[in-house]
């Protein structure tokens, strides 16, 4: 067997898909505790709306990711891609000019519609109008993972990985009864417990979200004000998220909920009820770039992590880069290679 994959969130899934496209064999182990991918909104948007610019490699990541997910949707015959415009609600009139300038810039012009809209939106507080983002939407990450997992049932084990059970052989490695050429760790924030890579600077950023029921909102667009409010269907909306750097527990808090409620009420003026309150930790890195590469000592142990707050757009390209570096020995970009943290890497197990 070619590759053992540990973790089946967006990273693990993207790596499995990349292997399948190259006719490689694989086996997945996932603890099914919880992951960031299970609670993410799954919004894909290659722009940074706070700063009116593109994200790192935004256009390139978007161009690869959309066909990637669409092919999975078609093959699994399960709807996962929900294209929808994002309405950026302006917090002040001065933003109109910034929007118009940004909409004219190369790259951004593909996504920003230059028109400033002032027609009120039912149920939405938009005193300064809004701008529309095109080519955006939501991947239903939970549905994607559930449907994909079913499709690879024979190559999937639900278990917590035991690092001490890896046995290095001359022709690959053994993990319990599994013989593989490579292991790729795709554990999201849980990587902090991985003895092979725990010294890398995965800082993590906790995000709490609310699922609300708001029958009078009737919005098909994703609203972006102080937070995102994204339609899930059946009058339910995903509302979030907090960005918390200090607290790395997997517990929701009253403080987080109160903050989200305040932001929801700055954005909409219709009644709503709260159906759920959940959280997870985004696998964010100190320099906001993915963590890809191979262990400095064990050349068959690899890492696919650091997808940050943009896992949907980043995962397909990150998986492709890592696969090419392992299979074709194509050098990773320095910006994503774990070797950029050279001193930290040397301290690894
Ligand atoms: C509140 C919130 C909102 C977000 N919204 C968006 C968004 O709108 N758009 C977007 O693109 N991104 C969003 N993100 C970011 C996105 O969720 C992440 O970038 C992405 O999901 C990370 O995927 P991953 O596979 O690396 O990690 P995870 O999704 O955390 O998956 C890791 C998996 O590994 C398994 N695992 C870990 N350790 C072990 C082990 N030792 N043994 C076995 N299994 C193990 C876990 O069970 C889990 O299934 C959001 C994140 C949060 C928290």
How would you describe what is shown here?
The protein has 349 residues and is α+β, with helices and mostly antiparallel strands. The protein is built from seven helices and 22 strands. It has helices at 10-21, 58-76, 95-103, 141-151, 254-267, 311-327, 342-346; strands spanning 3-6, 26-30, 43-44, 47-48, 53-54, 81-83, 86-89, 112-117, 130-133, 137-139, 156-158, 166-169, 172-175, 178-180, 182-185, 205-213, 222-224, 228-233, 236-240, 273-282, 291-294, 301-305. Strands 8-9-7-17-18-19-16-20 form an eight-stranded mixed sheet, sandwiched between helices. It has a six-stranded mixed sheet with strand order 11-2-1-15-22-21, covered by helices on one side. The mean pLDDT is 95. The structure holds flavin-adenine dinucleotide. Residues 6-12, 29-33, 35-37, 39-43, 160-161, 186-190, 207, 209, 240-241, 280, 282-283, 305, 307-313 line the site of flavin-adenine dinucleotide.
């Amino acid at each position: 067997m070619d590759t053992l994959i540990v973790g089946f969130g967006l990273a693990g899934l993207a790596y499995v898909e990349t292997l399948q496209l190259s006719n490689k064999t694989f086996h997945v182990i996932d603890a099914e505790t919880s992951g960031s991918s299970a609670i993410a909104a799954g919004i894909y948007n290659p722009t940074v709306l706070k700063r009116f610019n593109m994200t790192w490699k935004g256009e390139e990541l978007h161009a690869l990711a959309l066909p990637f997910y669409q092919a999975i949707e078609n093959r699994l015959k399960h709807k996962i891609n929900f294209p929808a415009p994002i309405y950026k609600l302006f917090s002040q009139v001065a933003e109109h000019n910034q929007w118009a300038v940004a909409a004219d810039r190369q790259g951004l012009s593909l996504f920003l519609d230059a028109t400033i809209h002032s027609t009120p939106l039912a149920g939405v507080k938009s005193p300064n109008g809004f701008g529309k983002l095109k080519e955006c939407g939501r991947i239903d990450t939970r549905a994607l993972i559930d449907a994909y997992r079913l499709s690879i049932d024979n190559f999937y084990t639900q278990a917590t990985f035991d690092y001490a059970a890896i046995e290095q052989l001359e022709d690959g490695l053994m993990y319990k009864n599994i013989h593989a050429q490579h292991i790729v760790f795709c554990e999201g924030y849980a990587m902090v417990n991985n003895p092979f890579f725990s010294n890398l600077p995965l800082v993590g950023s906790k995000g709490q979200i609310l699922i609300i029921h708001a029958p009078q909102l009737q919005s098909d667009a994703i609203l972006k004000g102080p937070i995102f409010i994204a339609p899930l269907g059946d009058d339910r909306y995903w509302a979030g998220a907090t960005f918390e750097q200090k607290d790395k527990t997997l517990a929701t808090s009253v403080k987080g909920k109160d903050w989200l409620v305040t932001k929801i009420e700055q954005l909409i003026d219709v009644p709503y009820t709260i159906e759920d309150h959940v959280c997870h930790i985004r696998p964010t890195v100190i320099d906001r770039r993915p963590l890809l590469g191979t262990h400095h000592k064990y050349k068959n142990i690899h890492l696919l992590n650091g997808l940050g707050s943009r896992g949907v757009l980043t995962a397909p390209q990150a998986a492709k880069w890592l696969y090419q570096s392992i299979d074709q020995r194509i050098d990773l970009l320095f910006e994503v290679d774990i070797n950029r943290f050279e001193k930290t890497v040397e301290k690894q197990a």
